[in-house]
Amino acid sequence: MKRIAITGPESCGKSLMSAALAGHFDTIWVPEYARQYLLGLASGYTYKDILHIARTQLRLMKRGIAEAAGSPVASWVFFDTDLLVTKVWCDVVFGTCHRWIQENLPKQPVDYYLLMDIDLPWEFDPLREHPHLRREIFDRYLSELNTLGVPYGVVSGLGEQRLLNALILLKQLS
């Protein structure tokens, strides 16, 4: 089974790509827990909240792997967000990151990363915070992926072409 993390800055199409790839491969995808959690907060989030989100996201990723492994046809599982997202989020917002996230990031169950490019137009969402930092944050993702030494590809393009470009990268893994 191939375990693929869809990662990248805000408003780059992670959720759409996760759902589209899962549909294409007739498998499951693990949604972004942060969205659900943050929508349930009465006020703003804290540094401690990001650690909770990271731990829960990793637990959901492992549950998704188990679910896909139990399927006779699933040979892929897609993660809409991973610990890399929580690390970059911590670094950008708080200037530091929880030790737990740093220790578990290189150990998370991911075989390949699809880094979503910022070539999509920014879309407002009340949970999105940094439209003016897109390039800087994208560059942080590139740096982190290179530092981790993990395999990844950058997905760009608009509309259907974006999905086709992701499929071309994933075909190399088959």
User: For this entry, what is the oligomeric state of its chains?
Assistant: single chain
Task: Give me the secondary-structure category.
Answer: alpha/beta
Largest sheet: 5 strands, parallel
What sort of overall outline do the alpha carbons produce when their principal axes are compared?
globular
Task: Give a brief description.
With 174 residues, this protein is an alpha/beta fold.
Helix-strand layout with pairing:
Elements: E1 2-7, H1 14-25, E2 28-30, H2 33-39, H3 47-69, E3 76-80, H4 83-94, H5 99-104, E4 112-116, H6 134-148, E5 152-155, H7 160-171
Protein model, in words:
The chain is α/β, with parallel strands linked by helices and 174 residues long. Helices cover 50% and strands 13% of the residues. It has helices at residues 14-25, 33-39, 47-69, 83-94, 99-104, 134-148, 160-171; strands at 2-7, 28-30, 76-80, 112-116, 152-155. It has a five-stranded parallel β-sheet with strand order 2-3-1-4-5, with helices on both faces. Helix 6 links the parallel strand 4 and strand 5. Helix 4 (83-94) packs across helix 6. The model has no long low-confidence stretch (mean pLDDT 92).
What key attributes describe this structure?
single chain, 174 residues, alpha/beta, 5-stranded parallel beta sheet, 50% helix
